[in-house]
């Protein structure tokens, strides 16, 4: 449960198969103990989700939206979750969103935006077109929200020039192209979202959450990108007290290519 001073910590992590990486999930929860953990790319159907580990560690409240071998999101919590929500922003049935509300009214939306393939042209690459449409649907949804929401997850877009290891080298690489950044800026403006990562670690300070598996040691060239985000409604953002990137998790056994982030609120 949250501590007596009513702080609430929310973590997000693209785990890239929750069952394959249960050891590092347990390590993270044991060492950092967030009140709520939002996972993306769980790659497991709901009936096969590894509930026992989370029960043992006190995360007895869960909402999951799974899919066999692909995608999937899950929100695990020490505090009760109500009003489960599922939106098909991909418009094809893929498991990329799960939402839940807390007893205090806070809405937590957990999302996994499509990667978008390799060619940054929606006329040549249907996957890229789907990614842009996904963000557009999120934007339309966002416009009608109350000031009570935190949205977290793998957005698969690094918006700022300093959010990638080389702005010039990645301008035409999916995840950092101007068209994607423009769409994400539109989403941010639709609700006056506050990007907590850049609130606590202002640009142009280094802030990455993903490194390719192609480098055996991701620290050698440090070719990272900030693909994962925690955003809050303006009023909720004013209660944020801390933000942390657990970069060391990229070195743990069988690591994900993403690392966790944790935001703390005094609600």
Please state roughly what percent of the residues sit in beta strands, choosing from under 5%, 5-15%, 15-25%, 25-35%, 35-45% or over 45%.
Answer: 25-35%
The biggest sheet, with number of strands, parallel, antiparallel or mixed sense and barrel status, is: 6 strands, mixed
C-alpha geometry: globular
Fraction of helical residues: 10-25%
In CATH, the homologous superfamily goes by the name Endonuclease/exonuclease/phosphatase
Distance between the termini: 13 Å
Strand order of the largest sheet: 3-4-2-1-14-13
Structure report:
The chain has helices at about 20-30, 50-55, 125-140, 165-170, 180-190, 195-200, 235, and strands spanning about 5-15, 35-40, 60-65, 75, 80-85, 95-100, 105-110, 150-155, 195, 210, 225, 230, 240-245, 260-265. The two termini are about 15 Å apart. The chain has seven helices and 14 strands. About 45% of the residues are buried. Strand 6 and strand 7 form a beta hairpin. It is an alpha+beta fold and about 270 residues long. Strands 3-4-2-1-14-13 form a six-stranded mixed β-sheet. A six-stranded mixed β-sheet has the order 5-6-7-8-12-9. It has a single domain (about 10-265), classed as 4-Layer Sandwich (Deoxyribonuclease I, Chain A).
Keywords summarizing the entry:
22% helix; 267 residues; 7 helices; Deoxyribonuclease I, Chain A; six-stranded mixed β-sheet; alpha+beta
List the helices and strands and how they pair.
Elements: E1 7-14, H1 22-32, E2 36-40, H2 51-56, E3 61-65, E4 73-77, E5 81-85, E6 97-102, E7 107-112, H3 126-142, E8 149-154, H4 167-170, H5 178-190, E9 194-195, H6 196-200, E10 210-211, E11 224-225, E12 228-232, H7 234-237, E13 240-245, E14 261-266
Parallel strand pairs: 1-2, 7-8
Antiparallel strand pairs: 1-14, 2-4, 3-4, 5-6, 6-7, 8-12, 9-12, 10-11, 13-14
Helix pairs in contact: 3-5
